[in-house]
Specification:
Pfam families: LAB_N. By secondary structure, this protein is mainly α. The chain is built from four helices and no strands.
Amino acid sequence: MTEMLNFLVAYLHDVFVIKFDAWVILGFVAQGFFTMRFVVQWIASERARKSVIPVAFWFFSIGGGTLLLVYALYRRDPVFIAGQALGLLVYIRNLYFIILTGRQASSDA
């Protein structure tokens, strides 16, 4: 049991202390953006008393996705790169539709 605990402590020290650098900070900032998009969506839904996806959700998605893609490129992780790159296409396309619909709605008025 002591050996397993020592291994866990050594592992956590390696991951969170020894390997801690500017790239890890970027990764945490990117993850913060992704977390904030869900917080924004949750607050908007609670206020509306129904499921709502506010525009800020897509901006946080693009910000977090872009930063995580940069981080994944640095780490050279093909699974992570593919996932973030494809996700960015979806986020940008949704924001495009929102902008397009907003322009059409304002021109109809």
